[in-house]
Each structure stands twice: as structure tokens, then as C-alpha cells.
């Protein structure tokens, strides 16, 4: 037994796998073609207790911590789901934590009146599956440089007037509200705040749905803000504290992406092993050839090593350790393992692996974003270099 393999967490795995088998697998191909996950799936996931995993019960969550969230993500993919499904169904994992933290992390007596109001208006309904939230940070002329955000929020009495644009926003088409990073000083000053902006607010428009290489069931959009008036009560925390809030949530986001990476690698190994056992060429199964067996062994080793390291780092984050460098390494290790393994898995499937009917083809496409989202591989390397004194 390990910290991620307890009786309770085994039950969580079983619950997650049952949900995927019953509610996801019969429909995932249709969702991929439709370009989004139906809203009802959020409500169903909430009813069985999966949507709120990792959020305190005091704010409407199901309890648990980062490790429980990792188990759900891992099992969704290993049961036949996809990282695109995780992105679509659990976008609140990046849209809500800032609100929960500003309200005292769900602790009684720690929340401000404004923080409690945001919990009631946004957090509880989202964890119940009745609202969908998104996080808007990235802008058309900037990616990983969060401090350079140019979307402005000018104070005007009891409101902010927001102008600017965002892009690559996950769940941006379906979202009922967007937790938005804005500059509350001059553009690019780094003085950031977070505002919750409701869909339908005058001047807030959802632009074109962005067509992507992968994550087809996860809708992605461009957002535009033209003189959008947002109540000051929709600000998360104090003014000009947004940059720190964003940075503090990066560890969980990066470990989620690392989990998606190693879980995709594990699932791809499983698919490749099954294929190589069943597929016969020149009179014997592919798995009967030493070259193929050794390739599968190497793929399995890479996936399992990445999983072990991500779990180790996640346990330290869950314990409150400031392991910024290790989180960056965990993400890069898992992403590199995934890239190698899914490529080999598709190769072993031959021509079938290139068809949209093949599950491994979906994982091949979906995996490419994992080294970009949440901070690119190059940005992770800069963090690692800084961590070793360079």
C-alpha cells in the first residue's frame, strides 16, 4: 500500500472507471465530432461525486486533495477516456481554486463577505454541475509571459471597465462565467487582478470556436471584452494580487497535465500490448517477436517511471512543500515519456493506428498539447535551470 493506493482510493478508482464505462465510452466519439461535451455530463459527474473531488465539502465539493484529483484523472484516461475529456469536464479545476482560496480555502470564519458571495454564486453551482467555468489568461500577443497581460480593468465607481481579448480558452464556448486575468494598472505592468465575468454581460463576446489538432471534445474559444462593466464584487481577493494567485495554482495545473501525460502513456501501452497479442503477421503474433516485446517493455518502463515520479512530487505538494522545480521536472518527465510512448504505440498499430477509429490515434493527437499547456516544456526548463542555480 502507498499514499496513492489506499482502500479508499481504490474505491475512487472503481467509481471513476464505472462512470467512464457507463457514461463516457458509448458517446466519446460523438462528442469528438460535435466538438464539445454535453452539459448534462457535468451534472452526472457531480451526482456520483466526481466533479467535486479535491474541493472542500464546505464549498460544495466532495472533499479529498490533490492526490485524489490525480487518481480521478489517471483512471478516466486508463479506462478509455482521454485528456481532452479531462480538459472539458474538469475546467473548473483551474477556474475555481482562486475563489476558494480567497474565501479562506473553505474554512469556517475565514471567508470575507465578498469571498462567500462568490462561493455561493459560482463555486457551488459549478461543483453541482449546473454552471461551467473557464479561466482566461492567455492573450493573442503573449503566451507564457503572464506578467505582460494587456487586458485592462479600469475602476469606475462600483465597477471595473474591462477591455482586451483572450485566446486558447478551454471551455470558452460553453462557459457561463470566465475567471479573467486583467491588468489593473497600465498594460504590461504586471499588476494583475482576477475578475469573474459572466457570459451575456454587454461587451463580452465569445469569438470563433478554435479548431485544434487534438482535444476535439474540448471546446476552445477566443474572447473579446469591449467596455465590459464588471461589478467590483466580482473581484477575487484584493486588487493587484492576481499574479500571485495565478502562480500559486500552477503547481496543481502542471501536475494535472503531467498526470494526463503518464496516464495517456500507460493507456497507449495497454492498447499496444493488446494489439500485438492479437495481431498476427507471417504466421505468428507480433508479440512473439523479441524486438516487439522489448519495445513494449521499454514503453511500459518509461510510463511507469513517469507515474512514480509524478506521484512522489504530488505527495510533496499535497503536504504543502514548495517544490516548484520538482513540479516542472515532473511535467517534463511525463510529457517526454508520453510523446515517446504514444508514437511507438501508433507505429506498432501500423495502418490501423492512423485511422480515426483507433483509440491510439486520439491519444497521439491529444498528447501534443501537454508540453504546451500550463507552461511550455521550454518554460519548465527555465524553472529547472533556476532551481539548480543557473
UniProtKB/TrEMBL annotation:
<dbReference type="GO" id="GO:0005737">
    <property type="term" value="C:cytoplasm"/>
</dbReference>
<dbReference type="Pfam" id="PF02771">
    <property type="entry name" value="Acyl-CoA_dh_N"/>
</dbReference>
<dbReference type="InterPro" id="IPR046373">
    <property type="entry name" value="Acyl-CoA_Oxase/DH_mid-dom_sf"/>
</dbReference>
<dbReference type="GO" id="GO:0003995">
    <property type="term" value="F:acyl-CoA dehydrogenase activity"/>
</dbReference>
<keyword id="KW-0560">Oxidoreductase</keyword>
<dbReference type="InterPro" id="IPR009075">
    <property type="entry name" value="AcylCo_DH/oxidase_C"/>
</dbReference>
<keyword id="KW-0285">Flavoprotein</keyword>
<dbReference type="InterPro" id="IPR009100">
    <property type="entry name" value="AcylCoA_DH/oxidase_NM_dom_sf"/>
</dbReference>
<feature type="domain" description="Acyl-CoA oxidase/dehydrogenase middle">
    <location>
        <begin position="134"/>
        <end position="228"/>
    </location>
</feature>
<dbReference type="InterPro" id="IPR050741">
    <property type="entry name" value="Acyl-CoA_dehydrogenase"/>
</dbReference>
<protein>
    <submittedName>
        <fullName>Acyl-CoA dehydrogenase</fullName>
    </submittedName>
</protein>
<dbReference type="Pfam" id="PF02770">
    <property type="entry name" value="Acyl-CoA_dh_M"/>
</dbReference>
<keyword id="KW-0274">FAD</keyword>
<dbReference type="GO" id="GO:0033539">
    <property type="term" value="P:fatty acid beta-oxidation using acyl-CoA dehydrogenase"/>
</dbReference>
<dbReference type="GO" id="GO:0050660">
    <property type="term" value="F:flavin adenine dinucleotide binding"/>
</dbReference>
<feature type="domain" description="Acyl-CoA dehydrogenase/oxidase N-terminal">
    <location>
        <begin position="6"/>
        <end position="102"/>
    </location>
</feature>
<dbReference type="InterPro" id="IPR006091">
    <property type="entry name" value="Acyl-CoA_Oxase/DH_mid-dom"/>
</dbReference>
<dbReference type="InterPro" id="IPR013786">
    <property type="entry name" value="AcylCoA_DH/ox_N"/>
</dbReference>
<comment type="similarity">
    <text>Belongs to the acyl-CoA dehydrogenase family.</text>
</comment>
<dbReference type="InterPro" id="IPR037069">
    <property type="entry name" value="AcylCoA_DH/ox_N_sf"/>
</dbReference>
<dbReference type="Pfam" id="PF00441">
    <property type="entry name" value="Acyl-CoA_dh_1"/>
</dbReference>
<feature type="domain" description="Acyl-CoA dehydrogenase/oxidase C-terminal">
    <location>
        <begin position="241"/>
        <end position="388"/>
    </location>
</feature>
<dbReference type="InterPro" id="IPR006089">
    <property type="entry name" value="Acyl-CoA_DH_CS"/>
</dbReference>
<dbReference type="InterPro" id="IPR036250">
    <property type="entry name" value="AcylCo_DH-like_C"/>
</dbReference>
Amino acid at each position: 500500500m502507498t499514499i496513492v493506493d489506499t482502500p479508499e482510493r481504490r474505491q475512487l478508482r472503481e467509481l471513476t472507471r464505472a462512470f467512464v464505462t457507463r457514461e463516457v465510452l458509448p458517446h466519446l466519439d460523438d462528442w469528438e465530432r460535435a466538438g464539445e461535451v454535453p452539459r448534462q455530463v457535468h451534472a452526472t459527474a457531480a451526482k456520483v461525486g466526481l466533479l467535486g473531488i479535491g474541493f472542500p465539502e464546505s464549498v460544495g465539493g466532495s472533499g479529498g486533495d490533490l492526490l485524489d484529483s490525480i487518481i480521478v484523472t489517471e483512471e478516466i484516461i486508463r479506462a478509455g477516456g482521454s485528456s481532452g475529456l479531462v480538459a472539458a469536464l474538469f475546467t473548473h479545476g483551474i477556474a475555481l481554486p482562486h475563489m476558494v482560496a480567497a474565501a479562506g480555502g473553505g474554512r469556517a470564519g475565514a471567508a470575507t463577505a465578498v469571498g462567500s458571495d462568490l462561493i455561493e454564486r459560482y463555486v457551488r453551482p459549478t461543483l453541482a454541475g449546473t454552471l461551467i467555468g473557464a479561466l482566461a489568461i492567455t492573450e493573442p500577443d503573449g503566451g507564457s509571459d503572464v506578467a505582460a497581460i494587456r487586458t485592462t480593468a479600469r475602476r469606475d465607481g462600483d465597477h471595473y471597465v474591462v477591455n482586451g481579448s483572450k485566446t486558447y480558452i478551454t471551455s470558452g464556448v460553453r462557459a457561463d462565467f470566465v475567471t479573467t486575468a486583467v491588468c489593473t494598472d497600465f498594460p504590461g505592468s504586471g499588476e494583475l487582478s482576477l475578475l469573474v465575468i459572466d457570459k451575456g454581460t454587454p461587451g463580452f463576446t465569445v469569438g470563433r470556436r478554435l479548431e485544434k489538432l487534438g482535444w476535439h471534445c474540448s471546446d476552445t474559444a477566443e474572447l473579446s471584452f469591449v467596455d465590459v462593466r464588471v461589478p467590483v464584487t466580482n473581484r477575487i481577493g484584493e486588487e493587484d494580487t492576481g499574479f500571485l494567485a495565478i502562480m500559486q495554482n500552477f503547481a496543481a495545473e502542471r501536475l494535472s497535465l503531467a498526470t494526463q501525460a503518464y496516464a495517456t502513456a500507460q493507456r497507449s501501452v495497454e492498447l499496444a500490448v493488446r494489439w500485438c497479442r492479437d495481431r498476427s503477421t507471417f504466421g505468428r503474433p507480433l508479440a512473439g517477436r523479441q524486438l516487439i516485446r522489448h519495445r513494449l517493455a521499454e514503453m511500459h518502463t518509461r510510463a511507469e517511471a513517469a507515474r512514480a515520479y509524478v506521484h512522489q512530487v504530488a505527495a510533496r505538494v499535497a503536504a504543502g512543500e514548495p517544490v516548484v522545480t520538482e513540479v516542472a521536472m515532473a511535467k517534463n518527465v511525463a510529457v517526454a515519456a508520453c510523446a515517446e510512448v504514444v508514437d511507438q504505440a501508433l507505429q506498432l498499430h501500423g495502418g490501423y493506428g492512423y485511422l480515426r477509429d483507433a483509440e491510439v490515434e486520439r491519444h497521439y493527437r491529444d498528447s501534443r498539447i501537454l508540453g504546451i499547456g500550463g507552461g511550455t516544456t521550454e518554460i519548465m526548463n527555465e524553472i529547472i535551470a533556476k532551481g539548480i542555480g543557473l
